[in-house]
Amino acid sequence: MAGVPNTLNVVTSFPFLVVGVFGLVLCFHGNYFGI
């Protein structure tokens, strides 16, 4: 991972990916997590 030029780009966008996936899961499952 150290030699890849886009490493910083991937690391900084990773939280957005997690939030996006979490949002999709909430949409598909409804209030699955009780939020």
UniProtKB/TrEMBL annotation:
Transmembrane regions: 12-33
Keywords: Membrane, Transmembrane, Transmembrane helix
Domain of life: Eukaryota
Name assigned to this protein: Uncharacterized protein
